Structure formats: structure tokens, C-alpha cells
Amino acid sequence: MIASPPVWGQGLVQIYTGDGKGKTTAALGLALRAAGWGYRTFIGQFMKGVDYGELRSVQLLAPYVTIEQFGRPSFVHEPAPEDRALAHKGLQRIGEVMASGAYQIVIMDEICVALHFRLVTVAEVLDLMAGRPAQVELVLTGRRAPQELVERADLVTEMVAVKHPYERGIPARRGVEF
């Protein structure tokens, strides 16, 4: 059993962006590492509503990692009012979770893609970032992170696509890509 977690320090804002693979995976790795020390992570997945492998693995990390999805069970090609409503529900939930004090890390998975599709606004996300309690580590993932978010973040990592099996016709594989 994990002992009581050590005192958590200053939280920062991290962004994992870029066209390369591994943004969500990096965020999940952070949650895994934190769970090993007894810290709690909340993951809000924007634009995701299907059975990804991380949903199953997070169950094994309970109660240290919690995950909720704010998306339809299909890929968004043309945003619908329902997509916007789900994304706004996600923003509201993230705000509640950060204010609760129950989690040391809060991950907004694919929020940058939700911004790209205009499901939420940069101003709304900046407001959420500004309201982040000092002890909460906030992580944003997704391609095309807006410059305004990059400037506000403390750590930004860009995943660069160098080579991917998809280019050779190999489809996404369960347990590796999803």
C-alpha cells in the first residue's frame, strides 16, 4: 500500500503539443508517476468518447487516477452543437476539480484540438488557467497549441513526427495507439 504522499509543492502549467505521437501518453506517464507517490490525478478527455486503452488501465490506478470523457463516441469532422456543449461541460468540470483540492494534477487531454475546432475559446481556457490554484499541476495536450497558451505555460514540449507506421499503411493498433 502506498503511504501518505509527501507534501505537494508548487504546481506548474505544462503543454504537450505537436504533430508527433505521444502527447496523451506523456500525460498518462505523469499520472502514473504521481500515483506511485500517492498523488491524485484527474484526467478530463476532450473530444474523446470511445473505449481507449487508457480508460481500462486507469481503473487499475484507482483511486489515484480518475478519468472522465467529454466527447461523443465518434471522431469530430464538422463540430455540432453537442460537441460544443460537451467541451463546455468539460471546462466546467475541470474548474470544479481544480477548486476541490482533491487532485494534485489535472490533465486536459486534447484541449488544444478542441480549441482548433472552436469548441471552446482561447479566452475560456486562459481564464481556467488563471484560476488554477497554486498547488495544482495543470497539463494541456493536443496538436496546435495556441501561442497564447504556450506563452502562459511553464513547460512546453513539442512532439515532432519523424516517422510513423501509418505512413506505410499500418493502421492504429489496440494497446499501442489507442
Main features:
178 residues, alpha/beta, Rossmann fold, globular
Task: Walk me through this protein's architecture.
- The chain has 178 residues and is of the alpha/beta class.
- The chain has one domain: Rossmann fold (3-Layer(aba) Sandwich).
- It has helices at residues 23-36, 53-60, 81-100, 111-116, 122-130, 147-152, and strands at residues 13-17, 41-46, 65-70, 105-109, 137-141, 155-158.
- Strands 3-2-4-5-1-6 form a six-stranded parallel beta sheet, sandwiched between helices.
- The longest helix is centred in the middle third of the chain and has 20 residues, at 81-100.
- The two termini are 29 Å apart.
- The mean pLDDT is 93.
Mean pLDDT: 93
Put simply, the count of helices is 6
Hey, roughly how much beta strand do the residues contain? Answer: 15-25%
CATH topology title: Rossmann fold
CATH architecture descriptor text: 3-Layer(aba) Sandwich
List the helices and strands and how they pair.
Elements (H helix, E strand, L loop, with lengths): L12 E5 L5 H14 L4 E6 L6 H8 L4 E6 L10 H20 L4 E5 L1 H6 L5 H9 L6 E5 L5 H6 L2 E4 L20
Parallel strand pairs: 1-5, 1-6, 2-3, 2-4, 4-5
Gist of the model:
This protein is an alpha/beta fold. The chain contains six helices and six strands.
